[in-house]
Specification:
Layout: H1 25-28, H2 38-46, H3 52-61, E1 68-69, E2 72-73, H4 81-94
Antiparallel strand pairs: 1-2
Helix pairs in contact: 3-4
The structure holds iron/sulfur cluster.
Length: 97
């Protein structure tokens, strides 16, 4: 997750206090500490996070790129149509507060 403006739900995020570099899509590709494909690694980073819907909503509102949000690894600007659709689905399922 990349924080543009802090919001209250972020206090519950699984990634709070973790190295933000772990959530950069480009860096995940070379992170040998996390096994599996890019998708699997992104999923693993966020698995069990209690604020996944809020995180997906935030990523969509701020048009995030290049980082993992809600287990979805976002690419560069203009490459994320499929990923944003996925985040929208996560947002709708989770009903963010
Ligand atoms: S879903 Fe992932 S990136 Fe988003 S707040 Fe949770 S751990 Fe952080």
């Amino acid at each position: 997750m990349r924080v543009v403006t802090p919001e209250p739900w972020m206090a519950e995020a699984k990634c709070v206090g973790r190295d933000p570099n772990l959530y950069e899509t480009k860096k995940i590709r070379v992170n040998k500490r996390v096994p599996g494909s890019l998708r699997q690694q992104a999923y693993y980073l966020c698995r069990g996070c209690p604020v996944m819907a809020e995180c997906a909503d935030y990523a969509l509102r701020w048009k995030q790129t290049g980082v993992v949000h809600a287990g979805v690894p976002l690419g560069l600007a203009g490459e994320n149509a499929q990923q944003y659709a996925e985040l929208d689905s996560i947002r709708k399922k989770g009903k963010p507060r």
